[in-house]
Amino acid sequence: MSLRRSLSQGLLGLMLMLLGLFVLVSLAVLLWAQFESLDAIEGRLEAAAPWLTVMRINVIVAVVVTWPRLVTWWVVDPARRAALLRARWRLAGWLVILEITLGQGLVGAFIASLMAPGA
């Protein structure tokens, strides 16, 4: 019972933290949209694109580097802990694939090429 309770409390805390972060970012975007036009926001985001890419890559590296410690903190069951520790590089691979396809705009470029006249 205590294992289930500790695991659910850890996941609940993580979900609440992510929900709070989402709400905070949403409020910041709404506030930003009140003070600047959409064209200005788009220009600023395009100018910040290289820095945002560096930030995303740093987050991926931080997750991969701290993965053993995170798993040790969050997972109590030794079998699940071992399975998650073995999945570290699989997770890293999927994060890199997501960054390449979504973060670098490959999906958008592919869809744009399909929608282009003469395609």
UniProtKB/TrEMBL annotation:
One of its GO terms (molecular function) is kinase activity. Keywords: Kinase, Membrane, Transferase, Transmembrane, Transmembrane helix. This is Histidine kinase. The chain crosses the membrane at residues 12-35, 47-70, 91-116. It comes from Ectothiorhodospira haloalkaliphila.
